[in-house]
Amino acid sequence: MNLIAQNISNELEKTQHEFWNISHQTAEFISMLIKISKVRNVLEIGTSNGYSTLWIADALKDSGLNGHLTTIEYYEKRQCIARENIERCNLSGFVTFKQGKALEIISALDFIPDMVFIDANKSEYIQYFDILKDKLPVGAIILADNVVSHAAKVADFLEEIKNDNRFQSQVLDLPAGLLMALKLS
Length: 185
Description:
By secondary structure, the protein is an alpha/beta fold.
């Protein structure tokens, strides 16, 4: 991560509780996963102030595969903050911002992601999965944050993905709990 992005990342870590950002450990894991898995098209559901967006975009840049992130945020004010943070890091060329209701935007996607990072309305995780599961290619990765900290709100999602034999999934012991699923068929 370049020095500017690192400094902004450090600034944003101070706002973790205000903007519901992922932990630094989770950000590091996602960055590393993007680099080793050769991901090119990432969909992020829940931008907030752009902390995870910064880490994902930076990893896509570092991978050298000409990857791109499309990120969805419901709240216009948060998306404006995120956009400013991404611009300050010189990562705008790697990110497309979409503002509005995630379910509507996901239903109308004009590309197929090979990684999806979910960190938005917990009660809608199952609906995001229902829209995406048949569209994702074999080898696609789904990551979902807060599956331990908000276990009751995402229980139906966890049960459905666990019982879908096209996916192999595991809850990782990262702060708040991170589900990682791989589409097998």
